[in-house]
Specification:
This protein is mostly helical and 803 residues long. The chain has a domain of 151 residues: Tetratricopeptide repeat domain (Serine Threonine Protein Phosphatase 5, Tetratricopeptide repeat). The protein is 74% helix and 0% strand. It has 42 helices and no strands. α9 packs antiparallel against α10. The longest helix is centred in the N-terminal third of the chain and has 21 residues. The protein is flat. Pfam families: TPR_16, TPR_6.
């Protein structure tokens, strides 16, 4: 069921239902600390609703939520408990903490069960579920809203959307009961015609046309939207047509044709008009309705030859009806044009395309068309599999056979009839008959007939020079007929025939067959047999075998072993297998933990613009390993591809953490800060949070935002972390003091790291910075001492380009 109308209306509705106002106690009459706390939260909530700044709104809503939470903890049985749960839920929900808000709404519903506050909570939860098409959840919630709404019109809204939700689950009885409840409501308002439309659709679905018709008619004459009235008019016409009331059906169809806002329903209305006229054999009436609709001219415009076909079933139905009317009126040329256009307007395997193709052959037969046999061949080739037992297909074959017979083309006629008694054929011609008939039947899409004829040839003439060719064709026919075991038997015989050409064909075709069957182990065996025993292969076939061996190994959890095959396939046919081999190679290198090769593969995928198809786990692993290998640009490049800055919570905090660190190391401080802030938004572990704060402080320092960097440093320091993070904070403190001209104080921070932290990365940097700080404050001797220590302990260490 489509809910387009319902969604439009629901989108226009308020996010939360109208709720009663909580009445605070007059402080002049009675001291009430609970009421005071509640009112503070409510005032803050109201201010948030009134503010124009989204940031300020979110901040105020979150503060309000905290106040309501404290209120509910301290005063769980206070008079305003119910509204407090609702306002807390709304504050959380509207500030982006959707799940927490929904839990608050659910708690309110579970604890109090009924009342306007419960109804308001149910409404918000119902909208959330309905817009996700979770009708099983939204149905009882909308119904609860309807039962507890503060106003009659809100009750009608709740019952209507509950009915839509039940209808979305095909629970028609429950939906019908609620539609009727809305219809009978005294304050149903705009939802009454919508409920009538919904109930009418249910009745129409149950073939209760007599009951459905007055409901649709009522909607047509209501003040509902043109879209709702248009749908009702179309359904009224359909119900009237089913009830044998053509004048009434015609009335509503014509109403659609002239009413603004009902344009969406005009194609369906026109098709129904044309079908009605066709059923009455009023062929001029069919064409008259088509001309007057205004759609005939649009339908006549064909897409340019280089434009991809856009299938339109409604257009195809109109064209088919117009074509059939022209055919009955003996306007064969016009009918042919329309039937051809149907075939280009719809999927070739659809019923409408099939009918159009059949009527086109009827046109050729009526005018004794020269190319009718070719037309029938094309027709049979398309539809033999899907409609092999259809009378129209066999009628078309009969038309072809008779045409060939009348032209004295008996050989083709005999093949078309496909009813040959081989015993009446001369012995010398029998092998050719069996072989050629089998071959032709196979080519025409009749695999069973081909197998029968070719089997007779193979068994009766095993020494014939065409035996391998016949066996190959029979194997192919077995595949088409779905008899895989028999096909494999033929392919295996050809593989061992000693004929290199047919052995190569057998290995290749049997491997492809196993590939289509998803029998990957045997596919791999057969492609390997092709490489080992197929003789000289073309570059294309060699590449195919290597690629699918690699592909099969990846699919069977042997990605490490796939690498040489995939590399060769790509080198042989880069245009064909470059991208696909690259994606599989990425998995192979990932499985073998080969960072260098995986890095090359990812960069190639980025260059060739298919990196979005790489698996996230490979990119994440490569990004992390590149970071640990000090390949920071590569790490940032890879992790950036699997991060989502628009929805940062969809990306793991681990990815954000290392993306921020990698960006920092590559000098992209602003971008690094954005990533680190995403970590801090969700990180709760104290040690990891302190590490993220350190990253934030370093990034702010690099951006010359020293005051913010100092505040971040102080926040992290209060967490009393030690180890590498603690040492990093000391280093940041020293850097901030150095920039502020406090070299004396900076030396203490650097000296702490030098004396107490054994870290191969931090210690040489601390020695270098300590020497610079000492030199800055004029203590040259001490500076030289630490510079010497640096050279002695870390002789290959290189100082950073910027201090």
């Amino acid at each position: 069921m489509k809910h387009t109308l319902a969604f439009l209306l629901l989108a226009a509705a308020p996010l939360t239902a109208q709720v009663p106002q909580a009445q605070p106690v007059d402080p002049a009459l009675q001291a009430d600390p609970g009421n005071d706390m509640f009112q503070r939260g409510k005032n803050l909530y109201d201010q948030a609703q009134a503010t124009g700044s989204q940031e300020a709104k979110i901040e105020m809503l979150q503060r309000a939520a905290a106040i309501f939470s404290d209120y509910l903890t301290q005063f769980p049985n206070h008079a305003n408990t119910e509204p407090a749960w609702l306002y807390m839920g709304q504050s959380l929900y509207l500030s982006g903490k959707v799940d927490e808000g929904k839990r608050a709404f659910q708690t309110l519903i579970n604890r109090f069960n009924k009342g306007p506050w419960v109804g308001a909570a149910a409404y918000t939860l119902a909208i959330d579920a309905f817009n996700k098409r979770d009708y099983q959840t939204s149905a009882p919630l909308f119904q609860k809203y309807g039962d507890n709404a503060n106003r009659p019109e809100d009750s009608a809204r709740g019952y209507y959307y509950a009915a839509e939700s039940f209808r979305g689950q095909n629970q028609d009885r429950q939906a019908g009961d609620l539609y009727r409840k809305v219809i009978n409501a005294t304050a149903g308002g705009v939802h009454v015609p919508l409920a009538k439309l919904g109930l009418g659709n249910l009745l129409l679905k149950g073939n209760k046309h007599e009951e459905a018709l007055p409901l649709f008619e009522a909607v047509v004459t209501s003040e509902a939207t043109p879209q709702a009235r248009g749908e009702a008019a179309l359904k009224a016409a359909l119900a009237a047509a089913k009830l044998k009331k053509p004048e009434l059906a015609d009335k509503y169809l014509k109403l659609i044709a002239i009413t603004p806002g009902m344009e969406k329903f005009r194609p369906d209305a026109l098709s129904l008009l044309m079908e009605t006229a066709m059923a009455d054999k009023d062929y001029p009436g069919v064409l008259d309705a088509y001309r007057k609709s205004g759609l005939e001219a649009a339908d006549a415009i064909e897409a340019p030859p280089d434009q991809k076909a856009s299938y339109d079933e409604k257009k195809a139905m109109r064209l088919l009806l117009a074509g059939r009317a022209n055919f009955q009126l003996k306007k064969t040329s016009e009918a042919l044009r329309l039937f051809r256009q149907v075939e280009s307007s719809i999927s070739p395997q659809s019923e409408l395309a099939y009918q159009a193709a059949y009527y086109r052959i009827l046109c050729f037969y009526a005018i004794d068309g020269e190319h009718l046999p070719d037309q029938v061949d094309a027709f049979v080739q398309i539809y033999r599999k899907s409609r092999g037992n259809d009378k129209n297909l066999h009628t078309a074959l009969l038309m072809k056979a008779e045409t060939l017979f009348n032209r004295s083309d008996y050989t083709k006629a005999a093949s078309t009839y496909a009813e040959i008694d081989a015993s009446l054929i001369n012995d010398s011609n029998r092998p050719g008959l069996l072989f050629n008939r089998g071959w032709c039947l196979a080519e025409a899409g009749d695999p069973q007939g081909a197998v029968k004829s070719l089997t007779k040839f193979i068994s009766d003439y095993p020494k014939d020079s065409r035996i391998n060719k016949a066996m190959a064709k029979r194997a192919s026919s077995y595949v088409q007929a779905g008899e895989g075991a028999k096909a494999i038997d033929d392919f295996d015989k050809l593989a061992n025939s000693g004929d290199e050409e047919y052995a190569r064909l057998a290995w290749a075709e049997s491997a492809r067959m196993r590939r289509d069957e998803n029998n990957l182990p045997d596919m791999i065996v057969r492609y390997k047999g092709l490489l080992a025993k197929g003789g000289t292969l073309t570059s294309k076939l060699d590449a195919e075998a290597n690629f699918y061996i690699g592909w099969g190994l990846v699919k069977t959890n042997a990605a490490k072993d796939s690498i040489p095959y995939l590399e060769k396939a790509r080198s042989l046919q880069p245009e064909t297998f470059g991208k696909h081999a690259g994606l599989l190679l990425a998995l192979g290198y990932f499985a073998s933990q080969n960072l260098d090769k995986l890095t090359e593969e990812i960069d190639l995928a980025i260059e060739k613009q298919y990196a979005k198809e790489l698996p996230d786990q490979a990119l994440e692993w490569a990004g992390m390993q590149a970071y640990y290998a000090n390949k920071f640009a590569a790490s940032a490049r890879f992790l950036d591809r699997i991060s989502n800055p628009d929805e940062p919570r969809e990306t793991s905090k681990g990815i954000w953490r290392y993306l921020g660190k990698a960006r920092y190391e590559t000098g992209k401080y602003e971008d690094a800060l954005k990533a680190t802030l995403n970590v801090l938004a969700v990180e709760e572990d104290p040690a990891l949070k302190a590490d993220a704060l350190l990253d934030k402080g370093r990034e702010l320092f690099a951006l010359k935002r020293d005051a913010e960097a100092q505040a971040t440093h102080d926040e992290a320091t209060k967490m009393h972390v030690e180890g590498r993070t603690g040492a990093g904070l000391r280093m940041l403190s020293g850097d901030l003091k150095m920039r502020a001209g406090k070299a004396e104080e900076a030396t203490h921070d650097y000296q702490y790291v030098v004396l107490w932290v054994e870290d191969r990365d931090l210690k040489p940097l601390a020695l270098w910075k300590l020497a610079r700080a000492l030199e800055k404050k004029g203590d040259t001797a001490e500076a030289e001492k630490y510079s010497s220590q640096l050279k002695k302990e870390f002789p290959n260490w290189e100082a950073p380009k910027e201090g």
